[in-house]
Specification:
It is a single chain. This protein is α/β, with parallel strands linked by helices and 195 residues long. It contains five helices and six strands; from the N terminus they run αααβββββαβα. The longest helix is centred in the N-terminal third of the chain and has 22 residues.
Length: 195
C-alpha cells in the first residue's frame, strides 16, 4: 500500500468516530422509540377548546395550591348568628364551610370517605385553625355527610366553581377528564420547575 492510500485510510478511521458523535448530538437521536410512545396512543387528544375541560383544569390547578383532603371538624353552637369572614351571618342550620386558604365564595363538593355522601356548598369563612383539620363544616353539613357521628372524619374536597361563577353541573363525569387534567397539570409543573 502506498503512502497516500495509508494516509487516506487513516483519515477515514479518525473521522468515523467524530461523525458518529456528531450524529448522536442531533435532536432526532433523542426522540423516544415508537414502542415506548405506543403506550400513550390510547389516550384521546385533549379537548383544548372544550369549556368544561378548561374549567376543570383551572380548578385542578387551584386545588394543587391548597389543602383539599383531610379531616373535617364542625362549628359549635357558639358561632350561630355571628359574622363569617366574608361578612355573612353564620347559621349552623345551613350548609356552609370554612377553609383556611381557598378564596372566599369558592363552591366545593365535599365527599365523606366513611359514608360516601357528597354535598355542595360555598366557602364563606376562614378556619379551621387546628392543624389536623382541613375543613370546618356547619352542623347541618356535618350531619348530612355523617361527619358528626362517623369515626372516620376524612373528607375529599373538589372545587366546582370559583367566586362569581356558577357551580359545575352535578352530572359531570370527571373520570373522562382525569387523564388529560393530570397530563396538563404535570406538564405545567415541569415547565414551572424548568424555569
Amino acid at each position: 500500500m502506498n503512502f497516500r492510500a495509508t494516509t487516506a485510510l487513516g483519515a477515514l478511521l479518525l473521522a468515523a468516530p467524530m461523525l458518529e458523535a456528531e450524529n448522536a448530538l442531533r435532536p432526532e437521536a433523542f426522540a423516544p422509540a415508537q414502542p415506548l410512545m405506543g403506550c400513550y396512543e390510547h389516550v384521546a387528544p385533549v379537548r383544548a377548546h372544550d369549556p368544561l375541560f378548561q374549567r376543570i383544569l383551572k380548578y385542578t390547578q387551584v386545588a394543587v395550591k391548597h389543602r383539599v383532603a383531610g379531616l373535617a371538624s364542625y362549628y359549635s353552637g357558639f358561632f350561630d348568628g355571628r359574622k363569617t369572614a366574608n361578612g355573612e351571618i353564620f347559621r349552623n342550620g345551613r350548609f356552609s364551610a370554612a377553609h383556611l386558604t381557598l378564596p372566599l365564595g369558592t363552591w366545593v363538593e365535599v365527599k365523606s370517605r366513611a359514608t360516601g355522601k357528597k354535598l355542595r356548598m360555598r366557602v364563606n369563612d376562614r378556619g379551621p385553625y387546628v392543624k389536623k383539620f382541613c375543613l370546618d363544616l356547619s352542623q347541618a353539613a356535618a350531619r348530612f355527610l355523617g361527619v358528626d357521628v362517623a369515626r372516620d372524619r376524612y373528607v375529599d374536597i373538589r372545587i366546582i366553581a370559583l367566586p362569581g361563577e356558577e357551580p359545575l353541573p352535578e352530572d359531570v363525569d370527571y373520570a373522562q377528564f382525569e387523564p388529560h387534567v393530570e397530563a396538563a397539570t404535570s406538564t405545567a409543573a415541569m415547565a414551572t420547575t424548568a424555569q
